Structures are given as C-alpha cells and as structure tokens.
Amino acid sequence: MEPYENGANVILVDKYGAQEPINVMIDEFIADAGKFDYDRIVAVGGGAVMDMSKVVAVAGGISIDDVIDHLPDFRRSVRLVLVPTTCDTGSEVTEIAAINRTRLGCKAGIAGPEMFADDAVLVPELLYGLPDHVFATSSLDVLVHSVESTLSPNSTPYTRMFGYGAMKMIISGYKAVAEAGPAGSPRQVQRTDARLPDRLRLCGYRLRYRRVRCRACAELSAGRKISYAPRESNYAMFTGVLRNYMEIKPEGEILKMNQFIADILGCDVAYVYDELETFINKLLPKKALHEYGVTEQDLPEFADRVIKTQERLMKNCFVPLDYDRVLKISKELY
Q1: Which CATH number fits domain 129-333: 3.30.230.10, 2.60.40.10, 1.20.210.10, 1.20.1090.10?
Q2: Could you report the per-residue pLDDT of 107-135, keeping only the tens digit for each?
Q3: I need a labelling partner for 195 at 20 to 30 A (CA). Which of 128, 141, 287, 300 fits?
Q4: 286 in the Ramachandran plot: left (φ > 0), alpha (ψ -120 to 50) or beta?
Q5: Domain ranges for the chain
Q6: Exposure pattern of 204-228 as b/e (b: 16+ CB <10 Å)?
C-alpha cells in the first residue's frame, strides 16, 4: 500500500498471491481496504483484480463468507470503476465475481446487482507490452467463452452476433501473430500490431458476454488441481468438450459454428478441431491433465464435484453433461 499525492491510496493485489481469488486473500484485502476512508474504488488489472474489487466494494468490511451468504442484503456505498488490462472475458461489465472457496473445496461465482461497476473504462493501449503467455492465455479464455456462449441454449441472435464476431477477431489475430514470427524477430512490430483485433473486440465482446453465462470448459476445470492456471485449463478442456458435444448432438448451432471456424482457418470442416488445436498450439502448447499434477485417481472425485458444485453454469451447456460424460471427457484429456 502506498499513498499518492492526490490523496489516493494503492493496494497491490500481488501482496495476496498470484492465483485466482480465494476467500483468505479477499478477507485480507477487505481488512486492508478498511484502513482507509474512501468513496471510490478504481480497479486496474485483470479479472482477479476486478473480481476482488467488486467484493471489497460491496463488503464494507464484512468477511467474504458473510457477503456470499447475504449478498442480496448488501448495498454498496462507494463508487466502483473497473479498468481491464488483459484480453479477458468482461468482468468489468458483469455483476459476477469468481471466488475459489478453499474452505469448501470448490470454485463459485457470486453475483448481484450491487456488484455492477458504475464505470467500465476500456483503454486498448493498456494491452501493449502484455507478455506473450498472458496474451495467449487470456485471449484463449475469451475464445472459449465466445464459443460456449454461442452454443448455449440461452443464446439469442444478438449474443450470437457478438460471439461469432469475437471468434473471427481472435482467431484471425492469432493467425497474424503466428505469421509475424516469434517474439524478438525482425517482424516484431507486425507481431505487436497483430494483437489489434483482440483490442478492438473489447467493447462488443464484453457487452455480449454479460448476456449469456456458459462456461462448461471453465467449470470442468474449476474443481481440478489445474484451477491455479484457469485460462490454461480452459484450453486443456476446450476441444475435448466440443468433440463430446458433437458425439451427443452433431446438429444445430454447432455445425454452423464449426463451418464458421473452418472458413477462418481455411480447412475442411471435418478437421476443424484438429486444425484449431494445431494452430493454437503454436501460441500456447496444450497440456494433458496429468501435466498439471492431476492423478488418475482424482478424476472420479473431480467429476462428482463438477456436477454437484457447478450446476448453475453447467445447465447452460450446448447439451447436458452428466457425471459419466464429465468423467469420460476427463479421462480422454488425462
């Protein structure tokens, strides 16, 4: 924490850990924020920073467990301004915060109207200098969400319009980055400029995302040991989930989406998932679940936990996924 001349105070989230927000971290954050007299929170950072700031703004000094248990009763008294710095999924325009509740051994999303920000400030230039790994993993998170929300039974023509727009911009941006060569190459300028589509999609995509909540890939990984690397874990589950969707229901919106992505990649639709995965691997090599420390003995427990604790979002999958199907996906990706 460091005082600034204009009267503001800064709390660096790094002080509480580098992983996704957990209950202990947030309680410490709430306690530290309570040492100041303030009427506005300006959160600048990735999804973790914004999610934690939403909770602090609502909590008013109360513990995270009390906030979760009584969120409808809370009324926020401070102004909340959210400024994203990664290619993430739009936390600054949603009323949702994802919390890893270590005391209960699960990840949960909490939501309420008081958690909407008063202002969402999008500054594309903040993404300049973003490390390649962070760019790849955070934008992949967006790609996964754009695909799943487009396939959601709750999608609408409006949300699908933004979903397909996000897919096109992100995959096209990946192609440009890959063609520009590795970091430090003579074409570094072109490589940096190739990220522009992902910057431009911020406004439209984030508005779309707040309409549909569907995160099968994220929720399948939420109860796993790989949840410390949530964006990577989304990719670990991504094409495996899509292949199983096709096994269950090879018709409807997923066929349209497959053709759409195949056209962007310039490949036969029959090989679209293989081509997509091969292409993304150039930016972020995919890992098997065991490479994250998951054991084969963990899989049944994790499948059970996903079904029992992530029902709120799993019900929005393209097709229902039961325990047996979740276990099958996990084994295939192990």
Answers
A1: 1.20.1090.10
A2: 677 888 999 999 988 887 777 777 777 77
A3: 287
A4: beta
A5: 2-121, 129-333
A6: ebbebbbbbbbbbbbbbbbbbebbb
